[in-house]
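Narrative of activities, Objective 1.

The group set out to show that a structural description can be obtained from nothing but a protein's sequence at a throughput compatible with the screening campaign. Below is one input-output pair from the validation batch, recorded exactly as produced.
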Amino acid sequence: MSEILDDSFEPKAVHDHFMELTKKYHPSGEENLVREYVIECAEKIEGVKVIHYDSGAEEPGERVIVLRRKGSGDYASDPYITLQAHMDMVCYPDRTIKFPLHVFGYNDNNAKWIKAGDESSVNDPSLGTTLGADDGIGVATILALLEDENLKDYPIECLFTVQEETDMGGAAGFDKNLLIGRKYINLDAEDANIIIYGSAAGQDVQFEGNVILEAVTTDFITLELSISGLLGGHSGVDINKGRLNAIKVITEALIRLNKRLTNLDGTAGKCIAGYDLRLISLNSLKKDEIEKKNPVVNKIPTWVVARIAIPRSEKDNFKNDFKAYIAALKRQFPEEKNFECSVEEVSSEDVISFQKSLDKASTDALLCLLRQIPHGIIRMIPKITDVVETSSNLAAVNSFGLEEDKVVIKSLNRSSDENSLGELLQIQEIIGKIFNYQVNAEKASPIWQPKDESDLVDKAEDVYKDKELYGDETRATVIHAGLECCYIVEKYGDSIDCISIGPTIVNPHTGGERLKADTVKTFYKAVSTLIQELFKKSA
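Output recorded for this entry:
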């Protein structure tokens, strides 16, 4: 792992804690190494008490950490301010990414960015692995704030949560009696110029259907098609950027190349020959996600693999037409510069003797269903410029193939309007019924509704008025993403005042995740100044 040596990543305490966190394996649900590190650091800081830590807890609500330090001097009787960050990260391209991460900085238009990957990805911002700045930088910042001599007299409470990236289980499940503070600052935002005071609800939706299988006869050959290298991104904050979804890409390709479906498309039958293809399997999940049955659904899919059976005599023409379609799509989306596809014949050694495919009707129904399932923006907020109100991310598909006879599809809906969220689910349920797929929805996370009056927002806006530090574009807004603040507001109601702030992080949940180095310093300055302003005594 290479160190960031110059002064572009400050303060040093934040840098050092963050670099330590990049050495520790901590995907959602497996945060113990980070939990142990937080406790180890806390026990070294004078005055900090561990209020809640259960090393053997299994339930996410029990695996949170609460630290507290009483105020002293003029602030001995003042109420606590609560700082919060989550300890898990998305591991991309899969949970087997190597720790410690190879972390390095690179210049882009005279700005220094911090990212992770290997030597081949140093100079390409779209390549690499996830960095874990979401939300390792929040964890590192809290620890540095507790160590800061300039803040030692202020009463500070800290909440470190788990499983934010999957189900927000830590924030949803912890005992509300653990927190005393009612000024709550979440450190999980991803734009140094934005103060967040509201966020959308999220709802997991699953389509599940049975399919009819049939034996693959000897006059058919098995081909494996793959799509990879797409930009992807966060299914909330990046859903309005028009990025390709790997599942939608391969679905559209297979519909256009399926002779039974080409007539359903106004132009496909005129452009591309149709083929007698059958699906054997279609998967956008890595092996570990299938085994754990816990896929991360808040990222736009960047990778998918399909196996199909096709008549041997059509093999070469199919390969050429598939590659031609993808090449045309790549020209249409030049920003997807790492977009790759492959189509390979599966060797006889890899084809199981009893291999089965979906029959014609099941193949066609699944492809048409995937085309119809909503993905992308559904509605914008009418009164707020450029903020999405309602969206859906077609997040995962897993058709097991072989001896299994079911297909599972997952979507993640988001909305800051309860009625719109319900209407979107109704649409999905109707689509499911048309194709004889059962649609089940998890309980939606709460909507974080903005308060009419917020002292915390007002104070934060005052802090961010320093244009020399924060520029001219700082604003307070709501966002189209789920933040753990929604569960905090649900637990404590109007008695609590919440905001979320952070440094600038781009492309979270992808191999191009990177942290803008100089915003770490200004972010730290903003949090520490805000704490001081909240405790300022009137003259």
